[in-house]
């Protein structure tokens, strides 16, 4: 009786976790693809340059692997082809367990991206999670007879449910790619106060690791005894640190980060001019023309790019983009928005609007958000 109950608890936990993990990744397939690219770059250095040839397909792999997680989780819960599904889950989890161990042991990728931006896990936490999951799947393989005894599973309904899960998963991933994530877990989400997020929420406290006579000692204040040798400084409350640490805007004249938080600013984010969707600038230029005609509320358009000034000068003349431009780190722009180009509307540093290039708003919509 106890084993039967344990089997059914594991059944719900494993199925639910795979569905949750897959949906979180499908919510932001571009973010998942960025994480895959990070793994490919690491593997290309440690194992083979062939991983760099897979990098261009990261987005397709992102949607495929995330969809696979959801479909396998649903298939497990409805007990469709139970034995085959359990073995697929076992080998998939075994692969990810090896991956997270390698990442944790050699400190290669500090965030596995298992749950996207919704839940950050350290490499060792990710590995522990995968080991527990592996044990639960082994339990299910050994006790699947208890799941089969729950009722008749040979009809066509489970297969139909799995098919629906497959279609919905692909649809969610493709839609999220062509727009913004359904739920934005990033620091630049609508409603975020960027200047506030760039400051610690509480005074940071540190622990000082010192060495003396071959022994290690830990202090919460730096020791005055000069015979101690400093080893490292460890934050005691890292969760109170700034949520945004790398937002910097500049041009040849200097730093303009704080200026971006003054008044109403429409940030036009262009990560890479060579990969930007050029056709979308017709709608963006129409928006800028509409905003220019309106005196109140006044909106200042600003272009931010990570491309070189030479490349951007050529690009902006080709698309007739009339707005001052500044520079930012490419990784920051990827975090701010998944589109290239994308739009971010700031009101005194607070994000009040965010759009993919497929969803460029009308001037009236922008103005309504600023009232």
TrEMBL record:
Signal sequence region: none
Source organism of this protein record: Rufibacter radiotolerans
Keywords: Membrane, Transmembrane, Transmembrane helix
GO cellular component terms, A-Z: membrane
TM regions (residue ranges): 5-24, 57-78, 85-105, 131-148, 160-177
GO aspect biological process, one term: methylamine metabolic process
Subcellular location: Membrane
Topological category with respect to the lipid bilayer: Multi-pass membrane protein
UniProt entry tagged with the keyword Transmembrane: yes
InterPro entries attached to this UniProt entry: Methylamine_util_MauE
Domain Methylamine utilisation protein MauE residue range list: 7-142
Pfam family, one: MauE
Name assigned to this protein: DoxX family protein
């Amino acid at each position: 009786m106890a084993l039967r109950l344990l089997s059914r608890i594991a059944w719900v936990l494993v199925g639910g976790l795979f569905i949750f993990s897959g949906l979180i990744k499908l919510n932001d397939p571009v973010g998942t693809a960025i994480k895959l690219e990070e793994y490919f770059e690491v593997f290309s250095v440690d194992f083979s340059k062939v991983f760099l040839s897979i990098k261009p397909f990261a987005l397709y792999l992102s949607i495929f692997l995330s969809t696979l997680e959801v479909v396998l989780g649903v298939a497990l819960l409805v007990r469709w082809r139970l034995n085959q599904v359990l073995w697929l889950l076992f080998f998939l989890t075994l692969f990810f367990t090896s991956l997270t161990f390698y990442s944790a042991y050699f400190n290669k990728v500090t965030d596995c991206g298992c749950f996207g931006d919704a839940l950050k896990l350290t490499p060792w936490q990710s590995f522990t999670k995968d080991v527990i999951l592996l044990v639960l799947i082994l339990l299910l393989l050994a006790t699947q007879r208890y799941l089969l005894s729950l009722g008749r599973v040979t009809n066509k309904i489970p297969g139909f449910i799995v098919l629906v899960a497959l279609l919905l998963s692909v649809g969610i991933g493709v839609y999220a790619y062509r727009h913004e994530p359904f739920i934005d877990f990033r620091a630049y989400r609508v409603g975020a106060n960027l200047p506030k997020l760039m400051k610690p929420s509480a005074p940071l406290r540190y622990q000082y690791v010192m060495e003396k006579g071959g022994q290690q000692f830990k202090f919460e204040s730096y020791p005055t005894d000069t015979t101690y040798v400093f080893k490292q400084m460890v934050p005691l409350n890292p969760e109170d640190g700034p949520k945004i640490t790398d937002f910097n805007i500049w041009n040849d004249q200097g730093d303009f980060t704080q200026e971006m938080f003054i008044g109403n600013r429409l940030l036009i984010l262009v990560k890479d001019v060579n990969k930007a969707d050029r056709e979308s600038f017709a709608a963006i230029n129409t928006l800028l023309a509409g905003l220019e005609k309106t005196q109140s509320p006044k909106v200042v358009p600003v272009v931010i790019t990570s491309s070189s000034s030479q490349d951007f000068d050529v690009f902006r003349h080709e698309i007739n983009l009339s707005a001052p431009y500044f520079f930012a780190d490419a990784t920051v722009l990827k975090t701010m928005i998944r589109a290239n180009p994308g739009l971010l509307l700031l009101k005194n540093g607070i994000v009040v609007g965010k759009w993919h290039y497929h969803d460029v708003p009308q001037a009236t919509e922008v103005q309504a958000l600023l009232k």
